[in-house]
Amino acid sequence: MISAYMTMAQSVDDVINSYVTALGGKEKLASIQTLYTESVSVMQNGNEVTIKTWKVNDKLVRREVNFGMGSMTSVITDKEGWNSNPRNNNKFEPMTPEQVQMQQPELDCEGPLVDYKAKGHTAVLEGTEDIEGAKCFKVKLTLKSGRDVTYYIDSKTFYITRMKTKGGGMGGPRGANADAELVVDYSDYRKTPDGYVFPYAFTRVGMGGSTNIEKIEVNKPVDPKLYKAE
Description:
Order of helices and strands: HHHEEEEEEHEEEEEEE
Strand content: 35-45%
Number of helices: 4
Helix content: 10-25%
CATH architecture: Clam
Number of strands: 13
Strand order of the largest sheet: 6-5-4-3-2-1-13-12-11-10-9-8-7
Radius of gyration: 18 Å
Distance between the termini: 56 Å
CATH topology: outer membrane lipoprotein receptor (LolB), chain A
CATH superfamily: Lipoprotein localisation LolA/LolB/LppX
Shape: globular
Structural class: mainly beta
């Protein structure tokens, strides 16, 4: 009864607008033009993996991963993408068009829920669900590409607690099966000194290990050479 009442009392736009407000508002999020993060993942075997990520809104995502015994890099632009191959002296190899399309949502620095209609996405509120004891609104977003992404938004904080989709991209592993389910839980939301709110920790459910963000920089210049597959 409570779940039904909560759903009736909120429209999908009410929920998304509250989420946007919780992260500082539409204007604040729209001001994110570049984003740089440094993070550390602790794997199930205890090994640490360090990740550096550069984003330029709608233009670039570059991710450099160092796993101790080696490293790999991925570069995604609005038109093309490449992965370095650790088994071939880290030589860059082009992604398939399908892989590039799967990674495209990551180019959106403010996130696909913000101004979703103008981006050609559609959203539906599918009721509520308990995630780790928290009542969450379940919002299904169908991207312009046709891909579905489900967000679980905490009914109290209006932060995203969980994201569920299929395949790689959206924080998923490189080269993931397009039909494999990806579930990511987000936590430790904090406000940066310049007023941006981000989750500083996330876990890929069922895959073990966790990732903690140790550094975030917003709107810092990005070296043009980072666009290149090198």
